[in-house]
Amino acid sequence: MPPMTPMANLFGKNPFKSLQHHMRASLECAREVPSLFEALSVADQEQVKSVMERIFEKENAADELKNQMRMSLPKSLFMPVDRRDLLEILQMQDSIADTAQDIAGLLVERPMEFPQALSQPVQELTQSCIAVCEQAARIIEELDELVETGFRGREIVKVEEMMDELNLLEDKTDEQGLEATRILFTHEDEMKPVSVMMWYQIIQWIGDLADYSEKVGDRLRLLIAK
Fold first, then answer.
1. Which of 45-54, 154-163, 173-182 has the lowest mean pLDDT?
2. Which of 31, 63, 109, 225 is 20 to 30 A (C-alpha) from 98?
3. Among 109, 140, 124, 113, which residue's Cα sits nearest to residue 21?
């Protein structure tokens, strides 16, 4: 292993590794969500339940990492970042895992029929939102390099470009979410009112996966700007 640079020595033990571990765990929760809708599209409720159980297990693991980081984070940090900034990023990451859990829980607590008109737009929206989660995770993985370079130089430019791409990806999901909602309301007369409400909520929650991922990038952008 190459010797640590003076800058790395300066930061030494820092919470960025914990933040990365937690983001990976949150991403694992989100990655399971497409499987929920794949199972729902073929009316396989047992598989929906199986995926839900995996999500709940992974969300619990993410919660453990979150709690460990909160307990181990010192009140003051010898770093060019504020403790509150790190906790805000952690909260946004945790919201990704929580939202995946919410989607899974609803689909099991209230078994849902997948309207044919919604199947493709909802699954495409889900895949796009996971892509936003993946991009946010790639940005968090750059924290090591940001620390090594003292939050300056080419690495900052690279991360800012990645955050710009994150924003563009999230914009696409906004458009897809609006289209899925429009299709839902176009076919609402063919559905029970409660089902319309539930599907509206599900579409919103799928979009939240991307929204929280974008907020991870936004919080990091603010952190860097300081």
1. 154-163
2. 225
3. 140
Reading the block at residue 73, the tokens are 């984070």
Q: Rounded to the nearest 10 degrees, how much is the dihedral formed by the CA atoms of 128, 129, 132, 136? A: -160
What is the distance between the alpha carbons of residues 45 and 30, in angstroms, rounded to a whole number?
Answer: 19
Residue-wise pLDDT tens digits, 107-148: 999 988 999 999 999 999 999 999 999 999 999 999 888 877
Is the Cβ–Cβ distance between 60 and 170 less than 8 Å? no
Whole-model pTM: value is: 0.90
Query: Does CATH number 1.20.58.220 belong to domain 14-225?
Result: yes
d(CA 177, CA 96): 17
> Residue 95 has which token pair?
């919201």
